[in-house]
Write a structure and sequence with these properties.
The structure is a homodimer. Chain A is of the alpha+beta class. In chain A, 20% of the residues lie in helices and 18% in strands. Chain A has helices spanning 7-15, 77-95, 179-193, 237-243, 270-274, 278-285, 314-318, 363-373, 403-406, and strands at residues 64-72, 126-131, 170-176, 197-206, 259-268, 329-330, 333-339, 346-356, 380-390. In chain A, strands 5, 6, 7, 8 and 9 form a 5-stranded antiparallel sheet that branches. In chain A, helix 1 (7-15) packs across helix 2 and helix 2 (77-95) packs antiparallel against helix 3 (179-193). At the A-B interface, helix 3, strand 4, helix 5, helix 6 and strand 7 of A face helix 3, strand 4, helix 5, helix 6 and strand 7 of B.
Chain lengths: 407, 407
């Protein structure tokens, strides 16, 4: 078997229909709709899939998220490589608004694409793939390639993590402005993975809880507060370079140009919060609820005077000045998952997602400080967790997610 | 106690902040945003809340759904009346893009509105309320007012109903083009209900699975097929009058101008479906997958020749000609609820919602025929169910959901 399976073989092997596809090239006869009243994404330009960095990190946040973690079930590293290659080819197509493959091929075979996104705009779709610490065990010979920054996250005070919402060998973050388009990615990735990897957990999200672009108004989280006022902005190349992209300092050259993704499923105790007094809610955050202005200031973007903020307020403890100047790029989404059958209360909150170039300097110490002191802790529970090494971008046709790791 | 609590008292009583509110009137000092980059709903005109019929039935389908069923825990019919009044006042405000009440009142009280929708457009929000069969027991003296058409749905072959996803004394359907706006309704209704009713189950949905307006392209369901081609269209007043609105034939005058809502949570066995051959998939529906054209026809909207459709195909069994000419107004949404922890497979499908003026003539016989014969049954499971009597519209300030029922 060659060290690098041919791209033509990727989807064919994964889907059991070798020869049907010519991956990477042009259309499949399924015309991409040029206008569709049913596409909430409208006619925004597609986000380029190929590039130095993976899309979906410094990309201004879209409105919808589908996140999935997979566990690799195969022990054959070639099967894993083939799957990652097929995922890359499929992601490139979907980001351009194309189906993964033809729906109508021959009657006596399954359609290559599941079809529910036919006629929908790509709606600024991005697909971002990362590798969890568990991938670097002895199954695939990758132990020596595990980056030092890809730590096992420590237990934080107050964690009540559900293993069915945590970890995973692989992570896929799909974001777009259309929930059907985002789900289509996870479903087709799961299908391509069949025989090689299985879904471990998934989470849908909506709304932006953090503004990641200067042109975006700061959205509100499900506690009703503006969230992300002082987030790193995608346009601020200096901060993105300094805090997000892995550079020459890494011990693993395959991670240069990549980043580290931390995901935390943070359930909000909605009913308790909603019964809390306005003054207490504002003391918890250190901001006014309606305007978003920090205490003693008039407007949302006025500089924070930390001396006027309660010592256990969230924005005081999370501020870069309280954390040695460290920042993270937050890219979280709200979630609502119905009712907790044990308590009868709403299971809703924040799927916290943050990108950074070294969680040992960034997420871990920030979260240790928050977990120990944050007034917000009374109203939240961390119920899921993951850390993933996100390799650099897929550069061109023929490249694929993590090719340098397996090279 | 007066037979009709004052509207001023509704929200105050429900929220424990009597006197803060002047319900029904103008703004609360929280300005409604006139432009917001963060609102996926854009600047569409709000859907009027007051009217002859409740909005959210013949309203062209919005893109997002939050459905909630409540159980009444109080035995005090006045508390139930007060809650329905407060719900009506709150729904009117939210449909107009206003918060339920002020966020900033006094520091030592909880905000009246939870705040997460501040600054968002109403995004064509509609709020539709219905009453389940269980409300008409002997708790509230309503037994004699139960409409004959509000039957206990029979067990259908293949049902695997989860009681935690079925039934309920009350049902609230919130639809808009913004998931944060739709969730805001359910959350604030639950808050207003505190002490009177509790959430029984909730379900989020996305995408339209049925086109309910002639100006809407037919969306695709999660099986990848166009769904709703021959649905009743909101603009077709004759069909809506004939099949949807309750008229003079009802045994309960309070239901005139109302309708009956059937909800079924239909899980799709995604993995089995995706492995099925194209020809089999098309035989199940009786349509081509890509074009949506019925068999032997070229285009989606070409008339169906039932003689060319397999006898167990879904569109043949569901067609009005197979059901004595009966039609229903479908208004369903796709759902994805992560992974079934028992099987590791995706829990995704259709939250089927249909409106009609007599389920005894419409949904029940249609579903009996489908449950017995539909080729689709191999790939779906009905996991939740409900039937609700949806009273006519709230006519004006001072009226409320079901006032004539309790009058």
């Amino acid at each position: 078997m060659s060290a690098e399976p041919s791209r033509r073989g990727f989807l064919g092997a994964a889907l059991g229909t070798a020869g049907v596809l010519a991956a990477g090239g042009g259309g499949y006869g399924v015309a991409r709709a040029t206008a569709s009243a049913s596409s909430p994404g409208g006619h925004a330009e597609p986000v380029p899939f190929y590039g130095e960095h993976q899309a979906g990190i410094a990309t201004p946040a879209q409105d919808r998220l589908a996140l999935a973690a997979f566990d690799v079930t195969s022990r054959d590293v070639q099967a894993l490589r083939a799957m990652l290659g097929a995922w890359s080819a499929a992601a490139a197509r979907m980001a351009a608004g194309e189906p993964v493959g033809p729906v109508e091929t021959v009657p006596q075979a399954p359609p290559i694409d599941t079809g529910e996104a036919l006629g929908l705009e790509p709606a600024r779709l991005t697909v971002t793939v990362g590798f969890g610490p568990s991938l670097f065990d002895n199954r695939f010979g990758l132990a020596a390639r595990r980056p030092a920054a890809l730590v096992d996250l420590p237990a934080f005070p107050g964690d009540v993590l559900d293993p069915n919402r945590s970890g995973g060998d692989l992570c896929v973050q799909a974001c777009s402005n259309d929930p059907q388009v985002t789900f289509h990615v996870i479903r087709n990735f799961a299908r391509i993975a069949r025989g090689t990897a299985v879904l471990r957990w998934t989470q849908l999200g909506f709304g932006r809880t953090s503004s990641t672009s200067s042109s975006q108004a700061t959205p509100r989280n499900l506690m009703g507060f503006k969230d992300g006022t002082n987030n790193i902005k995608a346009e601020n190349a200096e901060e993105v370079d300094r805090f997000v992209w892995v550079g020459g300092e890494t011990d693993q050259v395959w991670m240069r140009g990549g980043s580290y993704l931390v995901v935390r499923r943070i359930r909000m105790l909605i009913e308790s919060w909603d019964a809390d007094y306005l003054a207490d809610q504002e003391n918890v955050f250190g901001r006014r609820k309606e305007s978003g202005a920090p205490f003693t200031r008039a407007h949302e973007f006025d500089p924070v005077d930390l001396s006027k903020i309660p010592p256990d307020a969230h924005i005081r403890l999370a501020a870069p000045r309280a954390n040695g100047g460290q920042k993270i790029l937050r890219r979280g989404y709200s979630y609502t998952d119905g009712i907790d059958q044990v308590t009868g209360q709403l299971d809703a909150g924040l799927l916290f997602i943050a990108y950074q170039n070294d969680p040992r300097r960034q997420f871990v110490p920030i979260q240790q400080r928050l977990a120990a002191n944050d007034a917000l802790n009374e109203y939240i529970k961390h119920t899921g967790s993951g850390l993933f090494a996100v390799p650099p971008g897929v550069r061109e046709v023929g490249d694929w997610f993590g090719k340098a790791l397996f090279g």
